[in-house]
Structure formats: C-alpha cells, structure tokens
Automatic annotation (TrEMBL):
Signal peptide: none annotated. The modification 4-aspartylphosphate is found at residue 56. One of its GO terms (molecular function) is DNA binding. Residues 165-269 form the HTH LytTR-type domain. InterPro entries: CheY-like_superfamily (IPR011006), LytR-like (IPR046947), LytTR_DNA-bd_dom (IPR007492), Sig_transdc_resp-reg_receiver (IPR001789). Keywords: Phosphoprotein, Two-component regulatory system. Pfam families: LytTR, Response_reg. This is Response regulator.
C-alpha cells in the first residue's frame, strides 16, 4: 500500500516539527506540507488533496473545527486531532475524526491512530473499487445494483437483526431501540448514535455496527454516516448528481458521491 499523504496543522512551530520528526520514522505516512494556522490548512488541503490531516484544535483565527466546517464533504480528508485538551473529544467525533490524540504525544498512541487511518483508507478504497465494478456490471448487463448484490450474495439465510443496542456511559447502561435511530456519525472506533432526540456515544467500529443493522432499513450515505431510511422526509439535488437528505427532526445530511447510486435507487430518481 502507498503511504498516506499527510498535512500537519499546528500554530506552535516546535509541535509541528516534533510531530514531523516522529512521522518520518513511520513509513505509512508521508508528510507533504506543514501549516501554522487554519487558513494555511484550508489552502494546503485544496492544493494537495491529502489523505490525512493531523489537526490542532485551539489556534488563533480559524480553529480546527472551523477548518473542518469550511471544507466540502467530498474533499474532506481523514482527520486525526492532536491537542493538549481532552474536552473536545465528543465534538471531534461529531465531525468524523478518525482519532483524537492528546499532547504530549505517546508513540504507541500515535501508531494506533495511524493504524486506524490506514484501515479506514483501505476500506474506502475497497468501497470505491466495488462501486466501479458494480457500475461496469450494470453498464454491461442493464441489471440494477440491488439485483447484482442479490446475485453475488446468493441464497443466504435470513439474519436476525437486534431490536436494541447496548450503550455504556460510565457506570450507566442505556438500551437504545434500533427503530428509534435516525442516523449514526462515525469517528474511528466511536459512533455518535442519534436516537429519540438524544446522542449516545458507542465504542464500536462502523463496520461492526453496520453489520448489526438491517440493510433494508439502514443506508450508508457517506464513509462515516448511516441513516435510517424510515426517517427520510425529503431530498433535494445540489448539482453534479449530489443530494442533501432531510430527516424527520430537522437533520440535513449530504450524500457523498460514492453512495449516491444507492440513494437514487431508494428515491426512485
């Protein structure tokens, strides 16, 4: 596998240099740029289209979260937040961070975060390859994507989908009805589960959670987002075949290009 092309963003020069020196020892990462503030980060991401950004949160002017907010969803690289403050962890998960590493950086923790990014990137590549193959097969056969999936899967036995998810919150345990889940945001090994007007944090990978949810109801619309199609209240196009979905309760979620065909099929578009 090729190294992940990465950008370091931190307003402290010593912190940037220290992280760059550590990453030089990790073949999985190739640092292509360093930025001292949020504006430089936006410009470097637009110019280089990196796979991964090591992003500080507290910076003068445009902070780390604002950098994420100003990026287009389809141009959003994987993000590992590197910060001295732990109070932003939940917010980091909500903006799809791959991981959240505290300063001073522990080498083992850094390697763990990079391994997650590599696994995440490999999964994305596999999904893109699968989509290209599906497009080719549909073009050659005229058969729908759903029919091709059915033929590939064969006559498998029906799966029993759980009715509730168990979420641990410190000493408390919450049972969340799967039917009440509106959508799920992913960040590394943590999921933000939006259900019944509340958000619950669950330590589980996207792949593991997706395997627990009935695909007849739950739909992947982004590498880090799953929605419950029962709660879709509307959709509108954004141009270039992209969609913004509206959910009951007011949430607005963008469909990334890699998943738009499945949404088109669902909407009959």
């Amino acid at each position: 596998m090729n190294s992940l092309r990465a950008i370091i963003v931190d307003d402290e020069s010593l912190a940037r240099r220290g992280l760059a020196l550590r990453l030089q020892q990790i073949p999985k990462v190739d640092v292509i740029a360093e930025c001292a503030n949020g504006q430089q980060a936006l410009e470097a991401i637009a110019e280089h289209s990196p796979d991964l950004v090591f992003l500080d949160i507290q910076m003068p002017g445009i902070d780390g979260f604002e950098v994420i907010r100003q990026l287009q969803t389809d141009n959003l690289p994987m993000v590992i937040f590197v910060t001295a403050f732990d109070q932003y962890a939940v917010d980091a998960f909500k903006v799809h961070a791959v991981d959240y590493v505290l300063k001073p950086i522990d080498d083992d923790r850094l390697h763990e975060a990079i391994d997650r990014a590599v696994a995440h990137h490999s999964q994305e590549e596999a999904e893109r390859s699968k989509q290209r193959l599906m497009d080719l097969m549909m073009g050659m056969t005229g058969v729908s994507a759903a029919s091709i999936e059915e033929m590939v899967q064969g006559d498998s036995e029906p799966t029993q989908w759980p009715e509730k998810l168990v979420v641990k919150d410190g000493s408390d345990i919450h049972l969340i009805k799967v039917a009440d889940i509106h959508w799920v945001d992913a960040a590394g090994d943590y999921m933000c589960i939006h259900a019944g007007g509340e958000t619950h944090i669950m330590r589980i990978t996207m792949k593991q959670l997706e395997a627990m949810l009935n695909p007849a109801r739950f739909l992947r619309i982004h590498r880090s987002t799953i929605i419950n199609s029962d709660y879709i209240s509307g959709a509108h196009t954004l141009g270039n075949g992209e969609y913004m979905l509206s959910l009951e309760g007011g949430a607005q979620l963008k469909v990334s290009r890699g998943f738009r065909d499945r949404v088109r099929q669902l909407l009959g578009a």
